[in-house]
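Duplicate of #3305? Posting structure anyway:
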């Protein structure tokens, strides 16, 4: 076989692997699945702070066992038996539901575009899934929080005035309430307005109180009095009020918020020949539940 024959054989449609072939069409969605997950993970904030449970198997509802507060040790007397303490647990049930988003791509758009429209759509779908997931995480955490603080000890959110912005006293009080219930405060989640209010505190530029001056210079929030500070746009502002969240972990290291995966994010495509367009659909299945209500504190402030 000469060179020309070898090249022809290599690119012959009966031997080569083309994207329009049945096998390739079956493989491509799997490639997009990985892209979708990557784009989603890049935009997740609160979900990454949750205790994760893998339920990617048969079933509808899933019940897990959560440890209650550990019992305290006591002084012992020689020859006297140690008192037996009951091992206390409780159950939390997850019911995963489907969440998704979709776009349509016409053949004309695909042919005339100067960029890969399908990939751009997958990026946006990943962002949409991430936003939806963090929205649900925040909603569940806020509704199930066992502690709450209003800045400057106000009685109701309607009492918050423009001077009631995030301050050290409200943050440390939120952490103390969690500690009082025998949990360890670990994360503070704020929206961009809350981030600005923290950065505007007069003493925040002291490296020993905030973390490092390098973090301030780059314009993002890191550690504040032992709390890892995260910023998300998914905490909405309503009537000039925003609700930050402080998360703790149990003394045995379990997160206060639980995240159960039933099905990974995936892409499915369907071509409509008469309309000459593709449906590009992204969807996944999961659920959030509060595992330790007293390990979460809402912190309301003027925004």
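Output from current build:
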């Amino acid at each position: 076989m000469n060179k020309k024959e070898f090249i022809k054989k290599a690119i012959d449609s009966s031997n080569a692997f083309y994207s329009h072939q049945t096998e390739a069409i079956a493989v491509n969605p799997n490639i997009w699945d990985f892209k979708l997950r990557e784009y989603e993970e890049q935009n997740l904030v609160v979900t990454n702070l949750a205790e994760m449970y893998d339920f990617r198997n048969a079933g509808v509802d899933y019940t897990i066992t959560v440890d209650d507060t550990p019992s305290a040790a006591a002084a012992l007397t020689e020859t006297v038996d140690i008192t037996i303490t009951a091992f206390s647990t409780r159950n939390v049930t997850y019911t995963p539901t489907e969440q998704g988003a979709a776009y349509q791509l016409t053949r004309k758009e695909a042919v005339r575009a100067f960029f890969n429209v399908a990939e751009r759509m997958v990026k946006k779908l990943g962002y949409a899934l991430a936003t939806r997931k963090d929205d649900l995480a925040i909603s569940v955490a806020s509704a199930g929080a066992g502690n709450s603080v209003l800045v400057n000890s106000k009685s109701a959110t309607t009492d918050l005035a423009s001077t009631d912005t995030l301050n050290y006293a409200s943050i440390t009080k939120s952490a103390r309430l969690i500690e009082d219930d025998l949990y360890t405060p670990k994360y503070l989640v704020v929206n961009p307005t809350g981030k600005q209010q923290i950065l505007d505190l007069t003493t925040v530029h002291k490296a020993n109180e905030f973390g490092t001056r390098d973090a301030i210079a780059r314009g993002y929030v890191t550690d504040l009095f032992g709390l890892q500070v995260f910023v998300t746009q998914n905490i909405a502002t309503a009537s000039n009020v925003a609700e930050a969240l402080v998360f703790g972990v149990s003394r045995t290291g379990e997160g206060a918020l639980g995240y159960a995966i039933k099905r990974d994010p995936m892409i499915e495509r369907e071509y409509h020949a008469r309309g000459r367009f593709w449906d590009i659909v992204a969807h996944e299945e999961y659920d959030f539940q509060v595992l330790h209500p007293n390990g979460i504190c809402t912190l309301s402030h003027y925004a």
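Confirmed duplicate; merging threads. Residues 210-220 have pLDDT under 50 and may be disordered. The first strand starts at residue 51 and ends at 54.
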